[in-house]
Specification:
By secondary structure, the protein is mainly alpha-helical. The chain has two helices and no strands.
Length: 83
Protein backbone atom coordinates (compact mmCIF):
# COMPACT_ATOMS: atom_id res chain seq x y z
CA UNK A 1 0.00 0.00 0.00
CA UNK A 2 2.35 2.68 -1.25
CA UNK A 3 0.09 4.71 -3.50
CA UNK A 4 -3.14 6.59 -3.06
CA UNK A 5 -4.37 8.87 -0.33
CA UNK A 6 -1.96 9.66 2.49
CA UNK A 7 -4.40 9.17 5.37
CA UNK A 8 -4.96 5.38 4.91
CA UNK A 9 -1.19 4.89 4.58
CA UNK A 10 -0.67 6.88 7.78
CA UNK A 11 -3.22 4.74 9.65
CA UNK A 12 -1.52 1.57 8.42
CA UNK A 13 1.91 2.80 9.54
CA UNK A 14 0.49 3.71 12.95
CA UNK A 15 -1.13 0.29 13.26
CA UNK A 16 2.09 -1.61 12.58
CA UNK A 17 4.17 0.59 14.88
CA UNK A 18 1.56 -0.02 17.60
CA UNK A 19 1.84 -3.78 16.99
CA UNK A 20 5.63 -3.57 17.37
CA UNK A 21 5.35 -1.47 20.55
CA UNK A 22 2.87 -3.89 22.15
CA UNK A 23 5.05 -6.90 21.34
CA UNK A 24 8.20 -5.21 22.61
CA UNK A 25 6.49 -4.16 25.86
CA UNK A 26 5.36 -7.78 26.44
CA UNK A 27 8.90 -9.02 25.84
CA UNK A 28 7.94 -11.03 22.76
CA UNK A 29 10.86 -12.45 20.75
CA UNK A 30 12.25 -10.14 18.11
CA UNK A 31 14.97 -7.63 17.45
CA UNK A 32 13.96 -4.32 19.00
CA UNK A 33 16.65 -1.68 18.81
CA UNK A 34 17.10 2.06 18.71
CA UNK A 35 19.77 4.74 18.58
CA UNK A 36 19.17 8.10 20.18
CA UNK A 37 21.78 10.30 18.53
CA UNK A 38 23.19 13.78 18.39
CA UNK A 39 24.43 14.44 14.88
CA UNK A 40 25.20 17.21 12.40
CA UNK A 41 22.27 18.01 10.10
CA UNK A 42 24.38 17.02 7.08
CA UNK A 43 24.97 13.61 8.67
CA UNK A 44 21.26 13.30 9.43
CA UNK A 45 20.70 13.64 5.68
CA UNK A 46 23.23 10.86 5.11
CA UNK A 47 21.29 8.71 7.59
CA UNK A 48 18.06 9.45 5.70
CA UNK A 49 19.67 8.26 2.47
CA UNK A 50 20.95 5.12 4.22
CA UNK A 51 17.45 4.48 5.60
CA UNK A 52 15.99 4.68 2.08
CA UNK A 53 18.67 2.33 0.67
CA UNK A 54 18.03 -0.14 3.49
CA UNK A 55 14.29 -0.05 2.81
CA UNK A 56 14.84 -0.73 -0.90
CA UNK A 57 17.30 -3.54 -0.21
CA UNK A 58 14.78 -5.21 2.11
CA UNK A 59 12.18 -5.03 -0.67
CA UNK A 60 14.63 -6.57 -3.16
CA UNK A 61 15.32 -9.48 -0.81
CA UNK A 62 11.60 -10.00 -0.21
CA UNK A 63 10.77 -9.92 -3.91
CA UNK A 64 13.44 -12.57 -4.58
CA UNK A 65 12.45 -14.82 -1.67
CA UNK A 66 11.30 -18.24 -2.87
CA UNK A 67 8.87 -20.42 -0.94
CA UNK A 68 8.30 -17.95 1.90
CA UNK A 69 7.33 -19.71 5.11
CA UNK A 70 6.99 -16.87 7.61
CA UNK A 71 5.68 -13.33 7.98
CA UNK A 72 7.76 -10.64 9.69
CA UNK A 73 7.45 -6.95 10.47
CA UNK A 74 10.43 -4.70 9.76
CA UNK A 75 9.68 -1.30 11.27
CA UNK A 76 12.00 1.64 10.66
CA UNK A 77 11.76 5.20 11.88
CA UNK A 78 14.05 8.19 11.59
CA UNK A 79 12.92 11.62 12.65
CA UNK A 80 14.30 14.70 14.30
CA UNK A 81 13.13 14.98 17.90
CA UNK A 82 13.53 18.75 18.01
CA UNK A 83 11.30 19.23 14.95
Amino acid sequence: MTRGAAEPRQRLKTHWLDVAARRQSRGDPGLYSYNLISVARSDLERLRALHVRYFHEIRQIVSGSRAPDCVALVAMQRFELGA
